[in-house]
Amino acid sequence: MVLVACGPYTPSDSIAYDPLTDLIEVIGRDRPDVCVLFGPFLDAKHEQVENCQLLGSFGEVFKLCLKTIIEGTRSAGSQLVFVPSLRDVHHDYVYPQPPFLYPDLPKDDKPRVHFVSEPCTLDVD
Fold this sequence. Notes:
This protein is of the alpha/beta class. The protein has one domain: Purple Acid Phosphatase, chain A, domain 2, CATH 3.60.21.60. Helix content is 26%, strand content 14%. The chain is built from three helices and four strands; from the N terminus they run E-H-E-H-H-E-E. A four-stranded parallel sheet has the order 1-2-3-4, with no helix packed on it. The chain is globular and about 40 Å long.
């Protein structure tokens, strides 16, 4: 089973990641083999981002988002594929986009977490 989701993962009136929490619950319940997650993970068009009303830097908020997804889906064992968006405020907005960099990725998660460029070609199974 392949699950595909596209950001933004926040409601338009708040920077809270409640929709992301719901997605993590679905992944935990359905245990898909592969989850392809498209950005934006921190949307440049979000009102609080545009007005610089975040409690941390763009990079810090993004890392917290990734950490939440990776740790929240660990028990499901799903392969995670992260695809950037031109609206990811913390990332390069050139096309083609390079993959995200996440040097803090725990060693145990490296076999199941994949960062790809946009565009990319995926070969599943």
